[in-house]
Amino acid sequence: MTTLHDFSARGIDGSDVDLAAYAGQVVLVVNTASQCGFTPQYQGLQALHDRFADRGFAVLGFPCDQFGGQEPGSDEEISGFCERNFGVTFPLFAKVEVNGPGAHPVFEHLRSEKGGVLGDRIKWNFTKFLVGRDGRVVDRYAPTTKPEKIAADVEAALAAPVPDGQAPA
Fold it and tell me: Does a structural domain hold residue 43?
């Protein structure tokens, strides 16, 4: 069975990131944008990351320019914007597409695991996928769902048993 841990992605710094590195952790995968009405959610995402990181949790941000051209910058510009304006320290990845024929395999997988209001398509920036320690999607959240509203679900996922052979980070 395919899980998030079977994929890799390019980090915003250009490095290859094997998502198996997150095996045993709970992660929140989010497609982000710097010029969106939901962009202030970066602050809440960072707060979630800070609150739960020492328990084996990480936010993974994937910038996307597919919705209204709201992420026009280069990876370097995006990284600087996020750090400067929201103090983002959680992992960011290179800009990706999340829908259509050019969709990154991570998002093809996440969408197939948990559909939303538009079937498996992602509706807009800041769609969120909570992934359990086993790499399977626990839940999907609409762009309008503020990160603080997800905290109880993160707590529950962190309380779940760690799968055999996967040490929490």
Answer: yes
